[in-house]
């Protein structure tokens, strides 16, 4: 869901009236944990930074520094915290949230991202505090979207809009699944696997008791925003790598998740422009650009163009490639995208485009910084599957980009940290839980 404004909040409120082959390897994380990361059939997670010539101690230091700044840096001194570094704030001793600094609210996308970062890097205290906030303040306990999460609250946890943004819910469920794998299930709300399965089951079965499913029954794709805006999708919500994991976490719906893998891959292939590699923020279930219902005639509108949501599409394809092996369509997509951005200048391209590669009008292309750190991070992941001779230039561009700070540090910072995990080979599968047999 778009990060720069409270997009469609009023409209959303109104409309609301591994089954893949895997092998086990030892963890690269020295911290003790019962779980062991499960590697894809290729036997390793590609370390793009190492391929680009950086040494392991440098890479680890950069990861640690990015985590420290975004989660424990200076909080900011002005009323809006716009002069700070961190996005992680403690509400109570055992409850914390990630703040969208520009909008001064809490969004499920950020909570899901932050929980995933914490489990990937082994920070259980922060993970549990974030999950406590999401579970206690954001999860809906009744109504047509029971067990989904209100897409944003204020920083006290008061729900602003009960509409649902499926990207956040999917990331939260994946993070909980990996927490179960890494740390084991515990008591109460920290029975991570049970909590993940409850969310995953609801995604397909809210309609069983009169509610609204998160996934469209005909296309097997996530809808834009239950309970109201469910007739179209968002390509950046298609997460086939997660669906492969969910098929193992939620075996009762294994067949549905396997259908979602196929559908998600198909949407990622259909949504991008074949000349530029640029995908729209919103699309039909078939992948055609979908104007936002609240802005249907604006040619520079958010839905049908390459803007902040769409930045994430390339990473969705390449995480799947990293975890489960590169497929030809992923290489074709990444090469097409890289060819376009090489033509724009790898270190100078702007952040918002029409799908044909024309930059949005000047007044619609005022993202700061112009060469957005979040887009830099997402584009760098293309090197996982690309064969383009310029592929590592995108990795070096991320390496040379500072950790986001200031007013725009929320979305750019989240994508930056994810990009660092992707490119360092540190974004890993933590499933199944220790002691459980693996699928072969």
Automatic annotation (TrEMBL):
Belongs to the glycosyl hydrolase 8 (cellulase D) family. InterPro entries: 6-hairpin_glycosidase_sf (IPR008928), 6hp_glycosidase-like_sf (IPR012341), Glyco_hydro_8 (IPR002037). GO terms for molecular function: hydrolase activity, hydrolyzing O-glycosyl compounds. Residues 1-25 form the signal peptide. This is Glycoside hydrolase. The keyword Lipid metabolism does not apply. Keywords: Glycosidase, Hydrolase, Signal. Pfam families: Glyco_hydro_8. SUPFAM superfamilies: Six-hairpin glycosidases. It comes from Flexivirga endophytica. One of its GO terms (biological process) is carbohydrate metabolic process.
């Amino acid at each position: 869901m778009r990060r720069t404004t409270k997009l469609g909040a009023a409209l959303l409120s109104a409309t609301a009236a591994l089954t893949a082959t895997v092998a086990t390897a030892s963890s690269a994380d020295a911290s003790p944990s019962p779980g062991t990361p499960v590697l894809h059939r290729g036997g390793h997670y590609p370390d793009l930074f190492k391929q680009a010539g950086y040494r392991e101690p440098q890479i680890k230091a950069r990861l640690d520094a990015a985590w420290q700044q975004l989660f424990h840096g200076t909080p900011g001194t002005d009323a809006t915290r716009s002069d700070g570094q961190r996005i992680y704030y403690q509400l109570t001793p055992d409850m914390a949230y990630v703040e969208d600094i520009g909008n001064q609210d809490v969004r499920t996308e950020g909570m899901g991202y932050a929980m995933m970062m914490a489990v990937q890097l082994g920070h259980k205290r922060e993970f549990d505090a974030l999950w406590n906030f999401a579970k206690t303040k954001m999860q809906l306990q009744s109504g047509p979207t029971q067990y989904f999460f209100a897409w944003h609250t204020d920083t006290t946890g008061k729900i602003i809009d009960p509409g649902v943004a499926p990207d956040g819910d999917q990331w939260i469920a994946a993070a909980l699944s990996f927490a179960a794998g890494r740390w084991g299930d515990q008591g109460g709300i920290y029975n991570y696997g049970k909590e993940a399965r409850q969310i995953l089951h609801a995604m397909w079965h809210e309609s069983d008791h009169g509610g609204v499913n998160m996934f469209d029954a005909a296309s097997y794709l996530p809808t834009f925003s239950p309970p109201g805006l469910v007739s179209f999708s968002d390509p950046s919500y298609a997460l086939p790598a997660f669906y492969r994991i969910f098929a193992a976490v939620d075996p009762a719906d294994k067949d549905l998740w396997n259908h979602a893998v196929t559908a998600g891959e198909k949407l990622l292939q259909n949504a991008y422009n074949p000349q530029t590699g640029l995908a729209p923020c919103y699309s039909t279930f078939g992948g055609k650009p979908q104007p936002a219902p609240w802005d249907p005639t604006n040619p520079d509108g958010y839905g049908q163009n390459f803007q902040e949501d769409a930045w994430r599409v390339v990473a969705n394809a390449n995480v799947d490639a990293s975890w489960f092996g590169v497929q030809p369509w992923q290489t074709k997509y990444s090469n097409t995208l890289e060819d376009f951005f090489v033509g724009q200048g790898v270190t100078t391209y702007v952040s918002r485009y029409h799908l044909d590669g024309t930059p949005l009008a000047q007044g619609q292309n005022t993202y700061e910084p112009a060469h957005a750190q979040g887009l830099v991070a997402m584009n760098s992941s293309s090197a996982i599957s690309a064969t383009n001779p310029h592929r590592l230039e995108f990795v070096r561009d991320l390496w040379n980009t500072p950790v986001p700070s200031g007013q725009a540090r929320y979305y750019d910072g989240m994508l930056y940290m994810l990009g660092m995990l992707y490119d360092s080979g540190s974004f890993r599968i933590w499933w199944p839980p220790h002691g459980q047999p693996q699928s072969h």
